[in-house]
Amino acid sequence: MDDWKVCDAPIDVASIKGNPCFGGLDLSTIIDITALTLLFPPYKERKRWVVLPFFWIPEDNMEQRVKCDRGPRVEEICIEVLR
Q1: 3-state helix, strand, coil in the chain (%, to 5)
Q2: What is the distance between the alpha carbons of residues 75 and 32, in angstroms, rounded to a whole number?
Q3: Structural contact between residues 58 and 43, judged by C-beta atoms closer than 8 angstroms
Q4: Cα maximum dimension of the chain
Q5: Strands (E), the chain
Q6: E strand or H helix at 6, and its extent?
Q7: pLDDT in tens, 42-72
Q8: pTM, entire model
Q9: 79: how many CB neighbours lie within 10 A of its CB?
Q10: 62, 63, 52, 46: which is closest to 25 by C-alpha?
């Protein structure tokens, strides 16, 4: 767990603007999560990789998804709702 905690630092998004980046996109169907992950390799003086994940779900299925997944409310996690 200590190794994971070392990586738990805020990301200064402005500092990685213009850096090399790899992106992965997983498009959803009707009730899936749409995900975009941006992966920034070490660059210049930055020695660590930076990962920026983004997640979206359709607003129409938000409540159904929370019930089926038995997970926390969408507002409690980092998922944006597509309207």
Answers
A1: 30, 30, 40
A2: 17
A3: no
A4: 46
A5: 22-26, 34-40, 50-58, 80-82
A6: helix 2-6
A7: 999 998 899 999 888 777 777 777 677 666 6
A8: 0.71
A9: 20
A10: 52
